[in-house]
Design brief:
The protein is globular, with a radius of gyration of 21 Å. The protein is α+β, with helices and mostly antiparallel strands and 395 residues long. It has a single domain, classed as Cytochrome p450 (Orthogonal Bundle). The strands form 5 sheets. A 5-stranded mixed sheet has the order 1-2-10-7-3, with helices on both faces. Strands 4-14-11 form a 3-stranded antiparallel sheet. It contains 15 helices and 14 strands. The longest helix is centred in the middle third of the chain and has 32 residues. The protein starts with 10 loop residues before the first helix and ends in an 8-residue tail after the last strand. Helices cover 47% and strands 11% of the residues. A hairpin with a 2-residue loop joins strand 5 and strand 6. The structure holds protoporphyrin IX containing FE (HEM). Protoporphyrin IX containing FE (HEM) binds next to helix 7, helix 11 and helix 15.
Length: 395
Amino acid sequence: MADFDHLAPGVGDVIHERTAELRSACPVAYSGAYGGYFVVTGWDEIDRVAKDDDTFSSAVDGLGATMVLPQSEKVTAPLFESDRPRHSVWRRAMQPFFTPAAAARIEPEIRRLVREVLARLAPRGQADLVAEFAAVVPPLVTATILGVPDARRGEFAVLTRGLFGATSPEQAAGAGGRLAALLTGLIGERRGAPVRDVLGAVVNTTVDGVPATDEELLKHAFLMVAAGTLTAGDTIANTALVLATDAGLRARVLADRTLLPAVIEESVRHESAVAATGRTARRDTVLAGVDLVRGDRLLLVWGSANRDRTRFPDGERFRLDRAHPTRHLGWGAGAHRCLGMHLARLQLRVVFEELLEVLGDFEPEEGFAPRRTFGVLRGLRSVPVRWKVGGSTPG
Ligand code: HEM
């Protein structure tokens, strides 16, 4: 039995060492935590589970993304926790809102939001790029794609940050309750109305003639908020840290912004923000020589696949010259591969184009020691940086 708990305090600081041990000793290892689950750490094994959705369901109790919302464990969210053929119906309904062209259409709006946030920070010469930037921009972008009315976007962003950044159960319950009320209102307004946004598309889609229930739609909406904000926020934080701490890379990107898509793709591989999500075995099967029985739960550790030596011999290095830069599992694999990938890539590019434009050169505050998070997501607690106001080098 493996001594592994993806939510244990401090695991974020040693996760790459721990998953490297597991990959070489047993890429499908049993952990007794949370009632027992199999920790899947090898690239081949994760890829197989993700693509074999006849054998492995995305509906899973108490592991992965749904841990963010423990109170709604018994409800199955459309799309995220559904399996084919139902899953394909939801996915088709949402797809038009996530094409590269759809993402490009909201680029001006994303750029405007990013500029607004940066305009407040720029004159200060210093900021925590997690609390004041990475946690601020993605909720505003998510509000845009969910169709939250302009007047309520600020409130939506504050509640989202309040829920996911809560430091006490009371704070989480308060923000979560108010966010649920806001989302429930949006869902109600969209029933039977013409489809104008992704939430409307889900509300008005039926599977075998049956629409999703209010509870299912609310869980879906919460998971959309998490999928759109936490992931992008943590990737902004992870990428900001690489740029802040690698002066050579920063200078290259400052001189040539066309490197940004490569920086972002490598960042999604190097410290995969979607750290781990769950699956449930739908029938008895064997995975890497390990017998699994129907109902067994598995945790797919995506970031571990992305450091697997069989695919990335120097996976710990951050490189822009990989022969196959997109052949990583940071966006997932199979039917549930990230639907928001084009939007996320675009958002991240705009975020860093504007950050470099407005701050110029920047560097970490002296003595800064990164503290990594790990669990369902992989990010950073803070990235304090400083820059020279009105100039290109920090003062
Ligand atoms: C850098 C940021 C992001 C990363 C690294 C990321 C990664 C992932 C991964 C690994 C999955 C697969 C999970 C699984 O199979 O269990 C996924 C699914 C998903 N992502 Fe993303 N994501 C990001 C941003 C976004 C954004 C901005 C949105 C939308 C606003 C989004 C929407 C989704 C949705 C809807 C799914 C579920 C797809 C399905 O079940 O068919 N993601 N994402």
